[in-house]
Amino acid sequence: MNALELLLTRQSDARLTEPGPNSEQLSIIKQAALLAPDHGALTPWQFIVVQGEGRERLGDVFYRSACHHQLDERNLERAKTLALRAPLVIICIAKYVENNKVPRIEQVQSAACAVFAMQQATFAQGLGGVWRTGHYAQCELIKAELGLNVDDEIVGYLYLGTPEVKHVKTRRLSTEQFFSDF
Fold first, then answer.
1. Which of 14, 36, 48, 64 is the most buried (most CB within 10 A)?
2. In the chain, where does DSSP find H-type helix?
3. pLDDT value of position 147
4. With contact defined as beta carbons under 8 Å apart, do 36 and 114 qualify?
5. Distance from CA of residue 69 to its chain's centroid?
6. How far apart are CA 24 and CA 95, in angstroms?
7. Is pTM, for the whole model, over 0.85?
């Protein structure tokens, strides 16, 4: 897949199944993350790869978070299975590095670029992925369970696998809606 085709056809696939990335594919996905824009060469990222039994352990962490936040019964039960929605999950973390020239927002943006690069590398290899955030990315209890510092931020959970349904999503946005001349 050439670069323009990748950029213009990539999509998120929420329904993922086996197989997930093999070791060679995962190596490429990891390498893509480390090429993200990085002002000051601070490498403000950390990635936790969750697969196999680790997905159940992550589900337990989500469940403890749901209990802590007193979510309703439906969401309590759902929490246990969230990490099972794909064969592999990468927890993507912005590791804040104090620096007077590179503000926190740029470091978080760098980590976000790393997530996007990993999703692009996944799609380019014929696999699918979806980047999820929400409550579990903002939860202090989960950050503590993962051994993160207070200043660290979970940028998201990148779910990777094979799309359950092969279809191309239609594009509804027009460039004229979002671009103007100065």
1. 36
2. 3-9, 23-33, 54-68, 73-81, 104-124, 135-138, 140-145, 175-178
3. 96
4. yes
5. 23
6. 26
7. yes
Closest by CA to 114, choosing from 30, 39, 56, is 30
Burial of 8 (0-12, 13-18, 19+ CB in 10 A): exposed
With contact defined as beta carbons under 8 Å apart, do 142 and 154 qualify?
Answer: yes
Instruction: Give whole-number Cα distances, 125 to 28, 53, 145, in Å.
Output: 9, 25, 32
Angle formed at CA 75 by CA 80 and CA 82, multiple of 5 degrees: 35
Integer Cα distance of 139 and 61 in angstroms: 11
* Dihedral sign of CA atoms 121, 127, 132, 137 in order: negative
Here the tokens at position 91 are 């927890």
Given a contact cutoff of 8 angstroms between Cβ atoms, the answer to whether 37 and 110 are in contact is yes
The pLDDT tens digits for 24-49 are 999 999 999 999 999 999 999 999 99
11 with 125: CB under 8 angstroms?
no
Residue with tokens 């696999």: 127
